[in-house]
Amino acid sequence: MKSLFLFLLLTTGSLVAFSQTQSAMNKQAGQDYKDADKKLNDIYQLILKDYAANKAFISNLKDAQRIWIQFRDAQVKAMYPAAAKNYGSVFPMCRANYLTELTHQRTEALRVWLNGLPQGDVCTGSIGDKTGN
After folding, report:
1. Residue 7 lies in a domain
2. Count of CB atoms within 10 A of residue 41's CB?
3. Would you place residue 19 in the very low, low, confident or very high pLDDT band (cuts 50, 70, 90)?
4. What pLDDT does residue 113 have?
5. Is residue 69 within 8 Å of 40, Cβ to Cβ?
6. Domain range holding 75?
7. Is residue 89 included in any domain, yes or no?
8. CB 97 within 8 Å of CB 29
9. Residue 79 predicted with pLDDT over 50
10. DSSP alpha helices (H): ranges in the chain?
11. Which run of H or E residues covers position 122?
């Protein structure tokens, strides 16, 4: 009996130590999104620098990025079309998690211009064409 009581006491104590408030989870999700957005912007800036001589590509990339931001925002509205209060206290976390997911997807799509494609791929388009020739 004594060991059962001790086990329950330790288990309960460890669960409390690992639990988070919804506010803390919302804050963490917001920070995760900020970190993902910073990584996206860092990669975007590297591409702008590396491909600066390819003016046509840079112009098109800037257009694509502006449109992607519009798409991202519209996608979030489609996912959560009602007022925030309808989703409860988890809404900030859910919204930030979705923004983070979309941002990671865009980051990976842009990373191709830095990392290139496998050798022999004939459909590289502007990937690797840093001069525009």
Report:
1. no
2. 13
3. confident
4. 97
5. no
6. 21-115
7. yes
8. yes
9. yes
10. 2-18, 22-50, 55-79, 91-115
11. none
Judge whether 96 and 21 are in contact, CB under 8 Å.
Answer: no
pTM: 0.83
- At 39-51, the pLDDT tens digits run 999 999 999 999 9
CA dihedral 100, 101, 104, 108 (to 10 degrees): -170
In a domain, 35, yes or no: yes
What CATH number does the domain containing 58 carry?
1.20.1270.180
Q: What is the pLDDT of residues 99-108, one digit of tens each?
A: 999 999 999 9
Counting the structural domains of the chain, the total is 1
CB 91 within 8 A of CB 80: yes
Calculate the average pLDDT of the chain. 91
Separation of alpha carbons 20 and 124, rounded Å: 46
Distance CA 20, CA 17 (A): 8
Q: What is the dihedral of CA 16, 19, 21, 25, to 10 degrees?
A: 160
- Cβ neighbourhood burial of 103 (10 Å; 0-12, 13-18, 19+): buried
Would residue 68 count as lying in a domain? yes
Of 3, 9, 22, 18, nearest in space to 91 by CA: 22
